[in-house]
UniProtKB/TrEMBL annotation:
Origin: domain of life: Eukaryota
Bilayer-spanning residue ranges: 44-64
Keyword Repressor belongs to the record: no
Protein known as: PPM-type phosphatase domain-containing protein
Taxonomic source organism: Hevea brasiliensis
InterPro entries linked: PP2C, PPM-type-like_dom_sf, PPM-type_phosphatase-like_dom
């Protein structure tokens, strides 16, 4: 939030460039932290995160992503009453063939840039995502050495970053038939299809809907392991990582009337509040679509 506040205050608008700069500043901030902590906590060099961002401003939705989290739109088809799932984000996981091809094209001299290990595609045999915040051990060679754990160290030093922090960004003009957005980590999408998730949101009450999605995913995870959901829930969290990935879900409901009004707003188009950010009143203006989150 702080980075968006600074950039949007400077530009007085939201744009793809503003979002890209915010990602860059976040990456640089984390790199600075790693540099300071390296002498005391060198393993922080192997810490990283996916980063999925949604910004609504003036009736326009911006989706930016690093890694394999996903944003899905529930879109009403008025002729049939169906709500269709529309994926808005691009993913950076080398399980996807096009991502593997991208990695090969970016590193043509490295035949081992992507390796199939234990039946799972991984960058250098280590990590599934090709883009992230952090993971500087695969971005700067000076952090890929002792005392970093041996399992993270590459045999040969690299001259250019292996992973990227450049987000994929899409822009969507919101329409009155756009109903809601689902933002979730790959732990959800591993067990539910886009349409499955949209159907659950559409067919159940809003209150507690994110928890309902998590439960549905865990029920599928239990089914795949031929066990009961109640037994899966009893497993210690540290051990459960072997049964399913962590799951984070946010559901955002859109108001059709407010979407229409927001798209016609004139003047300054950004308002940033919250997250401990305080900006002068003159830099703030009504922006985007008031939303309800679950």
């Amino acid at each position: 939030m702080l980075e968006f506040a600074g950039f949007t205050s400077e530009h007085q608008s939201m744009s793809v460039d503003v979002i890209r700069k915010a990602y860059q500043a976040t990456e640089e901030g984390f790199l600075s932290l790693v540099t300071k902590q390296w002498p005391m906590k060198p393993q922080i060099a192997a810490v990283g995160s996916c980063c999925l961002v949604g910004v609504i401003c003036g009736g326009t939705l911006y989706i930016a992503n690093l890694g394999d989290s996903r944003a899905v739109l529930g879109k009403l088809v008025k002729a049939t009453g169906e709500v269709l799932a529309i994926q808005l984000s691009s993913e950076h996981n080398v399980a996807i063939e096009s991502v593997r091809q991208e990695m090969h094209s970016m590193h043509p001299d490295d035949s081992q840039i992507v390796v199939l290990k234990h039946n799972v595609w991984r960058v250098k045999g280590l990590i599934q995502v090709s883009r992230s915040i952090g993971d500087v051990y695969l971005k700067k060679a000076e952090f890929n050495r002792e005392p970093l754990y041996a399992k993270f160290r590459l045999r040969e030093p690299f001259k250019r970053p292996i992973l990227s922090s450049e987000p994929s960004i899409s822009v969507h003009e919101l329409q009155s038939h756009d109903q809601f957005l689902i933002f979730a980590s790959d732990g959800l999408w591993e067990h539910l299809s886009n349409q499955d998730a949209v159907d659950i949101v559409q067919n159940h009450p809003r209150n507690g809907i994110a928890r309902r999605l998590v439960k549905a995913a865990l029920q599928e995870a239990a089914k795949k392991r031929e066990m009961r959901y109640s037994d899966l829930k009893k497993i210690d969290r540290g051990v459960r990582r072997h049964f399913h990935d962590d799951i984070t879900v946010i559901v955002v409901f859109l108001d059709a009337n407010l979407v229409s009004r927001a798209s016609s707003v004139k003047g300054p188009s950004i308002s940033v509040r919250g997250g401990g950010v305080n900006l002068p009143a003159k830099t703030l203006a009504p922006c985007g679509t008031p939303i309800e989150t679950q």
